[in-house]
Amino acid sequence: MSKIGKPRLSWGNDGTLRSEQFDDVYYSVEGGVKETTYVFLTGNDLPQRFEGCEEFTIAETGFGTGLNFLVTWRAWLEAKKQKAVNQNAVLKFISFEMYPLSATEIMRAAEMFGELRTLGEQLAKNYPNDLEAGKHLIQADSDIQLLLICGDINETIDDMNFKADAWYLDGFSPSKNEGMWSEHVFEKIGQLTAKGGTIATFTAAGFVRRGLMNHGYTMSKVKGFGRKREMLIGAYETA
Fold first, then answer.
1. In which residue ranges of the chain is pLDDT below 50?
2. For the chain, which terminus, N or C, has the lower number of CB atoms within 10 Å?
């Protein structure tokens, strides 16, 4: 069975959370919510694609602080409020994480973004106290299921059988966390994508683009968030 690692964390005076393992930050305090919205929601044409669905499945590499999940949850709630989504529809969010944070750390990070604090509290309340390697199903809300898969994604992804409508490729930079951005993971992503599925990631690395193209995706470079020049989005053409 795959093992999990204990994250080595440091908190900046401004509330920024840094991974000492990967010498990288989990989010930007100033633009974290905007970046998630731009890269992952807009990059996957969300929340527009929620409209009319009975069930929508999002898969993610790198759960981190849960910021992407919380922003998506908020967008889902807003879509339901506007009656753009069937009131009985269900959102399934599947996320892979090698170094899971504790509920306390999840809550502390959510507090950095005032508009997400309430959802962060609700997530922390339902979050397992002692995470072990394996699958953890968290009923975040009556219509929102979070499946957190703890362990090395190169191993844990082999046991999965779902079809994602959208993928968020997050986690730390490929130059600092190369193991997560492997050819095997790209292959499995292709196999686990629904017809008409999409993908988005903050990186524009050539090997990421080529790896996804090798497994059914048509990839495009678009303008990145903020000062980042480019990022990648894609559509799945094979099913």
1. none
2. N
